[in-house]
Amino acid sequence: MNTEKTYTLADLKVWDYPGTALAVIGKPIKHSLSPIMQNAALEQLSLNDNRFKEWAYFRFEIDPEDLSEALEFFYQKRFLGLNLTVPHKVMALGLLKTISNSAKAIGAVNTLKWTASGYEGFNTDGYGMSKGIEQGLGKGLNENHVLILGAGGAARAAVVECLSQKAASIRILNRSKDRLDAMLSSLSELKGYESIIPIEAKEDLADLPEMGICINATSLGLNQNDPLPLDMAFLTPQWAVYDMVYNPQKTQLFIEAKKLGCAAKTGLGMLVHQGAQALEIWTEQKIDAHIMHNASENILSNQAS
Ligand code: NDP
Question: Got the DSSP string for 75-127?
């Protein structure tokens, strides 16, 4: 078995890896950093515990219409853990019997663990973001004003995390009003919901507090020519900016925020910590996220040079 190869549903049907298998599934999946960082962490674990020598983390490209069948095969072949990425995170929710409370609140799962009664679903994105912000910006969400850009899956995880960490207020700006409204109505039962302030018109940004944390949870920044997700004139240097996009490592938003004098960080820390928490769920061991960070940063730096 080759942990660098991209496997398919056909490969899964004849899967015969004798060890404990983990995998990330999505489409596209070829450029996922998860196999590199998870296998680096497994190698580290195996130095002190022989059990982990036969653990390995693979990647599978699975079409959305094949997700249900694929999950049955992953279960049958006893994959202990799965990470789900685009476009499976929401769809998988309907295929699971047991789902953690935070994943239910977010409305998406990114981590599954094999249990005797089926896969159990979790969502580690909010935790990953919160750790990425704490370590990258040197401040936490608690009692801070937050401005979230976007209303997709990652933004929902961000809002639920901000609610659970008791942010002072949570402003949300999204391109399409329908998606923002749908997100708001699905979160309306959550504790602290009244601290959410939807930004209906860009002019409302003129009323931003003096300082806070701005989180980009849109996909703007993934491509070099993308426009900025926010007019920087609305921010002061006292704002900190966290861009969930991690490739490129220096997004335009990051560059402009730095120019303005803001603390700023892109999303590699979030990626690493959501992965580290997933590995903790599967292994029940404390994971050293530094190893995962170094492994993925090496790949990104090589790609950039
Ligand atoms: P979704 O597709 O669910 O949501 C995309 C969001 O981006 C929507 O709010 C959408 O707005 C907005 N958007 C897309 N194009 C534009 C545009 N041209 N102008 C303005 N807004 C736009 O994606 P996810 O929520 O899953 O992911 C969002 C981002 O977060 C991605 O860049 C992803 O890579 C990153 N991410 C990073 C993680 C990490 O570990 N660092 C983990 C998860 C995600 P609309 O509703 O109007 O379409």
Answer: HHTT--EEEE-TTSTTGGGGG-SEE-HHHHHHT---EEEEETTEEEEE--HHH
Question: Measured between alpha carbons, how far is 186 from 85 in angstroms, rounded to an integer?
Answer: 21
pLDDT of the residue at 148: 98
pLDDT digits (tens, 9 = 90+) for 207-230: 999 999 999 999 999 998 999 999
**Secondary structure E strands in the chain:** 6-7, 20-26, 55-61, 81-84, 98-99, 111-115, 118-122, 145-149, 169-173, 196-198, 213-216, 240-243, 263-266
Q: Which two tokens mark 124? A: 């580690």
Probe target for ligand 1 pocket from 31, 175, 219, 268, with the most ligand atoms within 8 Å of CB: 219
Q: 239-253 pLDDT, tens per residue?
A: 999 999 999 999 999
Element (H, E) at 161: helix 153-164
Tell me how far the alpha carbon of residue 175 is from its chain's centroid: 21
Which amino acid is present at 162?
C
Q: Exposed (0-12), middle (13-18) or buried (19+): which is 232, by Cβ within 10 Å?
A: middle
Catalytic residue among 30, 53, 89, 166: 89
Which ligand 1 atom minimizes the distance to the CA of 153? 25
174, 155 contact by CB (below 8 A) = yes
Is residue 88 within 8 Å of 61, Cβ to Cβ? no
- Nearest atom in ligand 1 to the alpha carbon of residue 267 is 41
Q: How many residues does this entry show for the chain?
A: 305
Å from CA of 151 to ligand 1 middle: 8
30 annotated active-site? no
Q: What are phi and psi of 22, to 5 degrees?
A: -125, 160
- Which of 23, 12, 3 is CA-nearest to residue 110? 23
**Helix (H), strand (E) at residue 291:** helix 289-304
Distance CA 9, CA 66 (A): 8
pLDDT at 182: 94
